[in-house]
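Tip: read the tokens left to right.
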């Protein structure tokens, strides 16, 4: 389906035309009409399927056509991380270029000036507020914010927000919103706690299910059976500048813009120090960094000033860097969806990429689940002999014992009044 087959506003269609977007993704095709009809919607779709546009485009259309008070808050978009809030804010600017609206991004880690900007946007009544739950709640606790005009409430990556412990914050925010509103929820997975929250805050939602897609064939997936104590030495060898270390693994051309995903932020810090001690240009990305530090690290990484980014899952969703040739899972993610998100950082924009996962005996059950989801056995890399003996390969195979283990999971800007004149230079239809 083409975008101009949908009842989107001319301003939105003009922006899409300028950005060379003409064809809907499946989640956009199924979700946009339902949102435009005013239904509550719960959509299960993974990152990279175009879900952000699936709610931004109808939201901007409704703001252009609906009778709303420009001096009151009209829409709230919740995001789990600062990075995703930033990305949504950027996309809002692009898709809303020809739509008269105001927006403010609310997230932590900013300086005093940014805090003032956020407060100004909230108090003047931005059309759209994009916020992390904790930061918005802190603003609510300090300032008297009028939510009586909110007509649209959107939760992006709701599963991740609940995993991060934001359930109570979200419910507190919901309690301040009008009962009569449209609630839209996007989640990569649909566990019981998501359905529980949906039942509590939504009214007869329409459910849209987009199956989790498997990684594209342009990603060469590999794994190495390895003991935990061997991981750092293996990484150093893999990322070493020595020809022998590179050539044996076939990675001589994959030393720039490498992302290493690690399960815990403390391990991120330790691994980054170890790599730097071995003369590998690595930087850490985790939740303890101030927003200014995060921005600087990501800018340097995008510009090729940093070779290796060591990160928690904070980077697996919501970060767009197109030319990453190699992703390494230092720790096996606990869910197949998280694995797809992680390795999906490579092979973007029609590029090819490599994903290597280190599979310790402790993590083999989780990797078995991933292989079953992928319906394939991941190619194994040999462990260099100088690192010692590797675990028995059968320990980490698809056919290995898979008894369920016990585990537990648990710069804003005030964009005031975009009122640019649409060009209306689009063809009336893309149909032949």
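Filled-in amino acids:
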């Amino acid at each position: 389906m083409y975008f101009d087959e949908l009842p989107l506003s001319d301003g939105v269609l003009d922006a899409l035309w300028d950005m060379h977007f003409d064809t809907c993704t499946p989640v956009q095709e199924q979700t946009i009409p339902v949102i435009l009809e005013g239904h509550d919607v719960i959509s299960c779709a993974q990152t990279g399927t175009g879900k952000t546009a699936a709610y931004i485009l109808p939201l901007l259309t409704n703001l252009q056509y609906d009778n709303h008070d420009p001096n009151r808050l009209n829409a709230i978009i919740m995001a789990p991380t600062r990075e995703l809030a930033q990305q949504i804010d950027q996309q809002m600017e692009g898709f809303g270029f020809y739509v008269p609206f105001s927006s403010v991004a609310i997230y932590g880690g900013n300086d005093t000036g940014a805090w003032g900007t956020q407060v100004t946007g909230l108090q003047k009544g931005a059309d759209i507020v994009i916020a992390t739950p904790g930061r918005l709640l802190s603003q609510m606790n300090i300032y008297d914010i009028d939510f009586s005009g909110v007509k649209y409430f959107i939760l992006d990556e709701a599963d991740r927000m609940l995993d991060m412990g934001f359930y109570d914050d979200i419910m507190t925010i919901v309690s301040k919103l009008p009962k009569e509103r449209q609630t839209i929820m996007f989640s990569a997975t649909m566990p019981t706690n998501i359905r529980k929250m949906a039942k509590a805050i939504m009214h007869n939602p329409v459910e849209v299910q987009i199956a989790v897609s498997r990684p594209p064939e342009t990603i060469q997936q590999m794994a190495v059976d390895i003991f935990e104590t061997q991981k750092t030495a293996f990484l150093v060898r893999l990322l070493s500048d020595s020809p022998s270390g590179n050539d044996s693994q076939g990675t001589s051309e994959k030393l720039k813009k490498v992302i290493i995903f690690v399960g815990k932020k403390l391990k991120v810090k330790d691994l980054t120090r170890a790599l730097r001690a071995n003369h590998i240009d690595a930087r850490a990305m985790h939740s303890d960094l101030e927003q200014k530090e995060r921005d600087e690290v990501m800018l340097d990484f995008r510009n090729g000033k940093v070779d290796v980014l060591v990160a928690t899952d904070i980077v697996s969703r919501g970060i767009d860097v197109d030319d990453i040739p190699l992703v390494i899972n230092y720790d096996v993610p606990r869910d197949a969806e998280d694995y797809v998100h992680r390795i999906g950082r490579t092979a973007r924009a029609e590029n090819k990429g490599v994903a290597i996962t280190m599979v310790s005996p402790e993590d083999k059950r989780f990797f078995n689940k991933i292989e079953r989801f992928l319906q394939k056995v991941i190619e194994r890399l040999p462990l260099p002999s100088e690192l010692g003996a590797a675990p028995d390969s059968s320990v980490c195979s698809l056919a290995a014992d898979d008894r369920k283990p016990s585990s537990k999971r648990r710069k804003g800007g005030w964009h005031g009044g975009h009122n640019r004149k649409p060009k209306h230079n689009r063809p009336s239809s893309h149909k032949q």
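The chain has 15 helices and 15 strands. The first helix runs from residue 10 to 18.
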